[in-house]
Design goal:
The complex is a heterodimer of chains A (293) and B (528). By secondary structure, chain A is an all-alpha fold. Chain A has two domains: 71 residues; 220 residues, Four Helix Bundle (Hemerythrin (Met), subunit A) (Up-down Bundle). Helices cover 71% and strands 1% of the residues of chain A. Chain A is built from eight helices and one strand. In chain A, helix 3 runs parallel beside helix 8, helix 5 runs antiparallel to helix 8 and helix 6 packs antiparallel against helix 7. The termini of chain A are far apart. Chain B has 17 helices and one strand. Chain B has a single domain, classed as Cytochrome c oxidase-like, subunit I domain (Cytochrome C Oxidase, Chain A, Up-down Bundle), CATH 1.20.210.10. Chain B has 528 residues and is mainly alpha-helical. Classes of the chains: A mainly alpha (293), B mainly alpha (528). Chains A and B meet through strand 1, helix 1, helix 3 and helix 7 of A and strand 1, helix 4, helix 5, helix 6 and helix 7 of B. The complex binds protoporphyrin IX containing FE (HEM) and copper (II) ion. Copper (II) ion (CU) binds next to helix 8 of chain B.
């Protein structure tokens, strides 16, 4: 059977069941840990190990099949569409947390502060008739924060602004690397990618510095009311995605050095770049709505 | 683009042997079978829980279980039926049928397909195991509203992570289905020639990709509220428990359409076959499905009329919800017009499809009643809504799934089922489902709240009827199990390739041999 022009269908996949076992152990272990059982962490780390091994094997087989030329154009299109819809699902995941932020700021807190009673919303009157709504807030109970519930919000124009510059620059370097790829200019590709990866990790480090400051000096923690909750969950999940993106880009960099890609055939590179741009766009949303406004 | 497939096992062109075949398979038919068998098993588990509920409610007073366990039963019953029975059944049907219907050799991403399925048994084990934990299983209802859900015992994180696993599985399945439909169609199979089952699944998959992540986000917030000190749903910290309800129902309302759109697709396949006419108003069916999909995103707060929304909100959600009746009406009209002056015969799939149209429509009407927010203040959280969603889900979604099983079983197994037994199954089920759920309308209107193990004396008679109906319904499903197992063992009259008279005009799947060989459409067919 001619390989050219055929849709490749893999058989006997052992990776998925490994993935299920790994994920199961990870989550059961984590649950046990949360419930205070000693066994939890061990089980969890075994799960993480299995999952990491699964990904190594899974992506390994895909790379091998790709390098062996088993994938035709149509397979490539399937991968592309798959990646686009995966990123779409990630957008909706972040939307849930942005939704929580907007709902609290635009509706819940003002109502608690007394707005909307003409519309039939009576939380203020019955529960906290002395509460005045000012954003950022840790609520009428002043949950978390330093003694007395005080805390400092994160200012936009320090580290966050620098991080914005870093991510935007990294978006440019990854595009520049792509241009290199399209011209079959390996050097430009590798330099561009290396710069992107470096900027990505720099971003994560700076965010670590910012978190440290928040926890140690500003009284701003995950437990600092709704401000702390939305701040850390949004920036935290974003930071996690930056880290994942940077790891993916590192793999792509190593593969570029090994010469896996050509100007025609480099889906993995593009997928990583799309993911990176997605992470970039989410950051812009964060910068505007979490830090700035 | 023309497709030919290559398999890396093309020395032996069949499945490998033994248990590992099922664990490592990437074949869409194998995976479809796995989904369907899993779904049937979960249908039995969830059904057993329903019978615990109905046994307790047979008469007033506490008889068999304590209230906490009763609440666990309602919670797990709903979660298992929605995520373990109905959704996997549709995923199984999608796996089996979509490639065959669009002339594709397999699903676009076969390894991912395997993973989508093989996450489910692990999720099921995790969820069911919570029954044996300190503090019992999740008992706050399938909606997991805080603050009540946060008071669960050891089961809490397990419940949350079950939902994460189910979410990952659904999202991967949805991605696979979209990519298959958009990228794997045979030449000439244009979008507007696709069978409606394929269309409805395409739109369902879009819904899943948009909603499952939001649900995952919402339960993640529950988790951090309980264990990591966040205040998303804690008003003292500036959060709001109602926020959870918005997030949940942003997921939840489209989710109920995830449970019904593929049913619409199935019924739109079956009715034309047995009316021996093309589907009436094909393109209006497509547009109606798309508009239902869109509208399902903007009506969610009709589940929250009683939480104290501003009046504008109540009004908006009332009108928006009633709007959905328009495209739904288009569909019912088209099904009836398809039957109009058709040369109808009433084999089992057609019986179930017709019962679907009638009974689903009744559920739709009670939906319209509850859509009116001032009226819903009376109906909300009573047995009326239990009646509503069982009409749309049991005599809706589940009936459509059973119809699909009878319709395609001969194609899958190569043998015909026993028509007399199937008729018995149909009539027992259809009568008992009404005996079970119809009285619940009256109970609800008279004020009996949902999710309680005991009730006032005046509700006794209707509850007794409902329980009798439930038990007859439950045990009637053993007939289905018997029929399915018999066919899977190849016992029965041999089916023709066309299976149903004239069916080959109604879809590519009927042009394949019965049983469908392990690999089909390795060279894509040409469609005119
Ligand atoms: C004609 C279209 C429909 C309308 C107008 C409608 C309307 C409603 C309304 C207003 C409620 C909330 C009642 C309350 O809590 O007071 C409700 C509940 C529900 N509906 Fe529908 N509905 C429709 C179709 C469906 C369909 C097709 C399904 C699923 C297949 C469905 C499943 C449910 C479920 C599961 C609930 C209860 C959720 C819960 O609280 O646990 N509905 N419906
Ligand atoms: Cu709804």
């Amino acid at each position: 059977m001619a390989l050219h022009g055929s849709y490749y269908l893999p058989h006997k996949a052992t990776q998925p069941i490994l993935g299920s076992i790994g994920l199961f152990m990870l989550l059961v272990g984590f649950s046990n840990y949360l419930n205070g059982s000693d066994l939890g962490p061990t089980m969890m780390w075994i799960g993480v190990g299995i999952l990491a091994y699964m990904m190594f094997v899974w992506f390994g087989s895909v790379i091998r099949e790709s390098v062996a030329g088993l994938y035709n154009h149509q397979v490539d299109v399937s991968f592309r569409m798959g990646m686009i819809w995966f990123i779409t699902s990630e957008v909706f995941f972040f939307a849930a947390f942005f939704g929580a932020l907007f709902y609290s700021r635009i509706l819940a807190l003002p109502w608690m502060g007394g707005e909307g009673s003409a519309l039939g919303v009576h939380t203020h009157q019955y529960l906290w008739d002395t509460f005045k709504n000012v954003w950022p807030s840790n609520g009428p109970g002043h949950i978390g924060g330093k003694e007395g519930g005080e805390f400092e919000p994160m200012a936009a124009w320090g580290i966050p602004a620098i991080n914005t510059l870093i991510l935007l620059t990294s978006g440019a370097t990854v595009t520049w690397a792509h241009w290199g790829m399209l011209k079959d200019n390996r050097k430009q590709l590798i330099i561009g990618l290396a710069a992107t990866v470096a900027l990505g990790f720099l971003f994560v480090i700076l965010q670590g510095v910012e978190y440290h400051e928040a926890y140690s000096e500003m009284g701003l923690t995950l437990g600092t009311g709704i401000y702390g909750s939305t701040f850390f969950m949004l920036t935290g999940f974003h930071g996690l995605h930056v880290s994942i993106g940077a790891i993916i880009l590192t793999v792509v960099l190593l593969r570029s050095i090994r010469g896996h890609f050509s100007s025609e055939n480099h889906f993995a590179f593009e997928a990583a770049a799309w993911y990176w741009h997605f992470v970039d766009v989410v950051w812009l949303g964060l910068f505007i709505f979490v830090y700035w406004l | 683009m023309s497709v030919t497939a290559i398999h890396d096992d093309h020395h032996d062109h069949g499945p490998t042997k033994g248990f590992m075949r099922w664990v490592t398979t990437t074949n869409h038919k194998d995976i479809g079978t796995l989904y369907l068998v899993f779904s049937l098993a979960m249908f039995m588990v969830g059904g057993a829980m329903a019978l615990v509920i109905r046994a307790e409610l047979f008469e007033p007073g506490m008889q068999f279980v304590d209230p906490l366990f009763f609440n666990s039963m309602t919670t797990l019953h709903a979660l298992i039926m929605v995520f373990g029975a109905v959704m996997p059944a549709f995923a199984g049907l999608a796996n089996w049928m979509i490639p065959m219907m669009i002339g594709s050799p397999d699903m676009a991403l076969p390894r991912l397909n395997n993973w989508s399925f093989w996450l489910l048994p692990f999720a099921a084990v995790m969820l069911v195991s919570t029954l044996f934990m300190d503090g019992g299983a999740a008992a706050a209802g399938w909606t997991l509203y805080p603050p009540l859900s946060l008071q669960a015992g050891a089961s809490f994180p397990f419940t949350i992570f079950t939902i994460h696993i189910l979410g990952i599985s659904s999202i991967m399945a949805a991605i696979n289905i979209i990519v298959t439909i958009l990228n794997m169609r045979a030449p000439g199979m244009t979008l507007m020639k696709m069978p409606l089952f394929v269309w409805t699944w395409l739109i369902t998959a879009f819904l899943l990709i948009a909603i499952m992540p939001v649900f995952a986000g919402a339960v993640t917030m529950l988790l951090t509220d309980k264990f990591f000190g966040t205040s998303f749903f804690n008003a003292a910290g500036g959060g709001d428990p109602v926020l959870y309800q918005h997030l949940f129902w942003f997921f939840g309302h489209p989710e109920v359409y995830v449970l019904i759109l593929p049913s619409f697709g199935i019924v739109s396949q079956i009715i034309p076959t047995f009316a021996r006419k093309p589907l009436f108003g094909y393109s209006s069916m497509v547009y109606a499905t798309a508009s239902i999909g869109f509208l399902s995103f903007v009506v969610w707060a009709h589940h929250q009329y009683t939480v104290g929304m501003p009046v504008e909100g109540e009004l908006y959600f009332t009108y928006a919800t009633m709007l959905i009746a328009v495209p739904t009406g288009v569909k019912v009209f088209n099904w009836m017009s398809t039957m109009w002056q058709g040369a109808m015969t009433f084999e089992a799939p057609m019986l179930w499809a017709i019962a679907f149209v009638v009974l689903f429509t009744m559920g739709g009407f009670t939906g319209l009643m509850m859509a009116i927010s001032p009226a819903d203040l009376q109906y909300h959280d009573t047995y009326f809504i239990v009646a509503h969603f069982h009409y749309v889900l049991v005599s809706g979604a589940v009936f459509a799934i059973i119809a699909a099983v009878y319709y395609w079983l001969p194609k899958w197994t190569g043998v015909m089922y026993d028509e007399r037994l199937a008729n018995l199954h149909f009539w027992l089920t259809t009568i008992s489902v009404n005996v079970c759920f119809f009285p619940q309308h009256f109970l609800g209107l008279a004020g009996m709240p949902r999710r309680i193990p005991d009730y006032a004396l005046q509700f006794a008679e209707f509850n007794a009827w409902s329980s009798v109906g439930a038990f007859v319904f439950g045990f009637s499903q053993l007939i289905l199990c018997y029929i399915v197992v018999k066919s899977m063992r190849g016992e029965g009259e041999k089916a023709t390739d066309e299976v149903w008279e004239g069916a080959s005009e109604h879809g590519l799947e009927w042009q394949l041999p019965s049983p469908a060989p392990y690999h089909t459409w390795e060279h894509s067919p040409h469609i005119h």
